[in-house]
Write a structure and sequence with these properties.
Elements (H helix, E strand, L loop, with lengths): L1 H6 L9 H6 L11 E8 L7 H11 L10 E7 L7 E7 L5 E4 L4 E3 L3 H10 L23 E10 L2 H8 L2 E3 L2 E9 L9 E9 L4 H15 L9 H5 L2 H14 L8 E9 L8 E8 L5 E6 L4 H20 L3 E5 L47 E3 L14 H21 L1
Parallel strand pairs: 5-14
Antiparallel strand pairs: 1-8, 2-3, 3-4, 6-10, 6-13, 7-8, 8-9, 9-10, 11-12
The structure holds flavin-adenine dinucleotide.
The site of flavin-adenine dinucleotide has 14 residues, from β2 and α10.
Amino acid sequence: MKIGEVLGLGGTPFDAGCYKILNRQPLDFDDDIFSVRFSKGLPWKKRNIGRYLKKAFEKSRDTTVLLHANAVEIILDEEDVSLVSAIRIRSYDGRERLITANDYILAAGAIEISRLLLASRNRMPQGVGNRYDNVGRWFMDHVCVRAGYIVPSDRKKLLQGIRPVYVSNVLHTPRFELTKTQSGCCTAFAQIVFEAHPDSAFSKLRALFHDIQREGGKAVSRRPFWSILSDMPDVMAGFVAYTVLGLRPIPARSTPVVLLVCEQPPRRESRIFLADAIDAIGLPKIRVHWLVGGEEKTTLLALARLFEQQLIRSKSGAIQWFGGFNPAGAAFPAEWAGWYHHIGGARMSVSPTDGVVDSDCRVHGVSNLYIVGSAVFPTSSCSFPTFTSMALALRLVAKLDRRRASA
Ligand SMILES: Cc1cc2nc3c(=O)[nH]c(=O)nc-3n(C[C@H](O)[C@H](O)[C@H](O)COP(=O)(O)OP(=O)(O)OC[C@H]3O[C@@H](n4cnc5c(N)ncnc54)[C@H](O)[C@@H]3O)c2cc1C
């Protein structure tokens, strides 16, 4: 709940109870096979967390933000290697400083955390926290396949069950998660995205918004505005759907595409490691050896079969699978991808022999170094990682606060 507040996601439930609040009818799926979980998309204004939290940081009396300060080395104490004595920071123009503190928390994203630990070899040649060669290992992502598209048999019914809806500018999108994992399967879900035709005004507007988000107003001049105006009736219909009904606009020329997503089993050999090349800041570049195996393929094929079966059962549609993907014939496509959910590299474990941090997110063998983020997840689940990362971060901060108060 606290995390939902920080992000401004509102108090709506994440499960099927949300349909009632949205005043919508769920698809008639068997609850023993699929559970609905709503994902929530941040309001537009809050998408850039740096900008969104900027004012709070500026006002804060106990936070100092250093911009362009890249952490490049974790420096262990000369006499006691179980203590970090400083973090070296460096800017791209070559300026350097040492930052000292009582406790250090690395929150640099899963891949960068592994890189920093591995590249900090001042006192330990194998890197910080890497006595048992665990840093960078058990790397995971969510495996995603763009599997097919739905041919609706009852479009109205289908849209009731799958259409994303805005509540107070927060986008609510239903996902259909396997309730019980079948034998040999990982956790997994199906989600439908309405893919606008690349020539439609919607596609062009979307690209424009993304550019504006990244670069600000100067992006406007680059996108051909007249081509957006030519599709105006469709854009107006979408605008009315959004402003009056709170529905996510669905372009007239769009296809309901089925995405299948699953977790990965942790594999020690799936790993992030240092490359020989050095980057512009002076750190070794990294390489990722990302493994995807039979379990994920079995899972996604089973998910596909069950999702199609339930769509047909609920009389809402059938699926036309894209070439190469054939759940009945167990054919898996060559095209699958990760989902930018980098997980692992500094996994949590009871024993230092099996991981990098303990249950408090403290690096094994280094008493004042902590890690927050999905790097510490020992398993990935199919659910998205940010909430769990933030929950772990809040728990750690509360713990450090309590310790400081009692000291
Ligand atoms: C396109 C996309 C869509 C996503 N969608 C979702 C979603 O819907 N739901 C979800 O749960 N997750 C989603 N994710 C994943 C989500 O973004 C991550 O789980 C989350 O951002 C991780 O937070 P973090 O703070 O650990 O790392 P990050 O958000 O990566 O933040 C790390 C910060 O550390 C800084 N940094 C990195 N290296 C250094 C260094 N050496 N020195 C100093 N600073 C450094 C970076 O500049 C950055 O500001 C998505 C990711 C992408 C890319």
